Description:
alpha+beta, 31 strands, D-amino Acid Aminotransferase, Chain A, domain 1, 14 helices, 576 residues, D-amino Acid Aminotransferase, Chain A, domain 2, Anthranilate synthase, 3 domains
Amino acid sequence: MQTLIDFARTGAAGGNAPVRCAFGAPSQTLVAHTPAQVRPLLDAVQALARQGRWCVGYLRYEAGAAFDSALAVHEADGPLAWFGVHDTPQPWPEGEAGGIATAQWHESLTRTAFDQGMAEIHRAVADGELYQLNYTAPLHGVMQGAPCDLFMALRRAQPGGYAAYIDTGDEQVLSVSPELFFDWDGERILARPMKGTAPRGATPEDDAALAAQLRASAKERAENVMIVDLIRNDLSRVGQPFSVRVPHLFRLEALPSVWQMTSDVEARTRAGTTLADVFAALFPCGSITGAPKVRAMQMIKSLEPDPRGVYCGAVGVVRPGGAATFNVAIRTVTVKGGAVRCGIGSGITADATADGEWQEWRHKRAFLERASQPFELLETLALQDGVLRNAPDHLARLARAAVHFGYPLDVARVEVSLQQLADAHRQGLWRVRLLLNARGQAQVEAHAMEASPALVQLALASTAFEEAGSEFVRFKTTRRAHYDAFAPRVPGAFDTLLWNRQGELTECTRGNVAVQLDGRWVTPPLRCGLLDGIGRARFLREGRLVEAVVRVEDLPCATGLAFVNSLRGWIDAVLV
């Protein structure tokens, strides 16, 4: 049994210090199986912490019934609360990359059922039953490897925040939540609800524009402030009179796959307030229920057929002396045997749309998909007679991808490896693959390449490319299943021309595309959802190409077509 806690962020100035450490097997465990056992367990946790112990554990979402019988929940699928008690922390395992763990995920909720749920929520909002409801569904899967290795991969995919790995023996909790539930030092308490989401942009300019749109969105701000008001009311139950305040409203936080909007709500707690009192006032967090909380939880129970479990509960640490920090257990995986589970959800308000929320769920699960299948960063270069084509541009793109995915990169060492490979291949045309893994280990290899054809045939995709704009499109990696699914099936076709849900051309599966329209050569802008190809960028710099949106219906008017990448250069094409 092992426990890791990495609450690297401080709540706010004057709050609890960050904590990042490991623990071995607990000296004792505290477990609550019934609602009546939850408050006594929290009292015991607080007493042990005041005796100098570290207590690390979780409360399941279904533990809400322990604090108010009006909070409707399903029967729990495990302990309502579990805490390990530890005497002394150990250093975090620095430099321990861990092994490889993989997981295959499938959805439990169909799009039809999702739309039906959305319709029921909108009816309830229209009837005045509630203002907002947090709608969720679990993803299920099977994993291979060690749960702790999957946790390390999840941390790389969702860095920062409030991460914890807890092995209870029967199950493992892998939480990489970015959301603070509360940070309490015994006197001052801070809650930081997270409501309001937008995808990250394909370029710095697009990213800034999406952040600005989120900040200005009436829908997202309303979603956030509804929960802020709910938590203000919850905190007033343990706060000193007139001490509840909102020092920060609508702050944006940049996560790898999404922008999230947070607000701070804080108070000074009354004398004699206990840890159990804090949970009784706040749990479950309003950001994962909706408002008003009682009605929202009643509707959640009717809409969601299964218990949420640790997901949407709280995972945290109570330190020696009694200071406590807990996350809201989103972005949280539980493992039992080889079975894995992770919930995904969003807040639904009157102006939420089914399409918009479905896409938000896709954006939120990106961290899970990134962590669940190991991949390497990839650059493919042409090597001709000992000279690497566009090498500085490829290394710069690799560096951007390494920053995005959190992969360590020693550029100087990679440059040496590339030069040694070039020196060993002074003659001929070669395709060079440069790979970088999550540990920062680089590999270069050369394969003989035939000269490029003068003309190729491109087949138009028969359906929209749903992954357009995802991080595994915007960055080049060895994860290519989404491209492989569009491999050309037309005999003689060189590649497939892809288009997004809006009917806009994006790219081919192995290169970018250029289209001649109205006497000029254009290529789709990055915001359409494509790789920033090295050859594409070079032709843009030279003025041979300009960016412009090209729709599928524009193709009959095209007077020219070309396949473009760094490896092959410019190849004229025809559409089949």
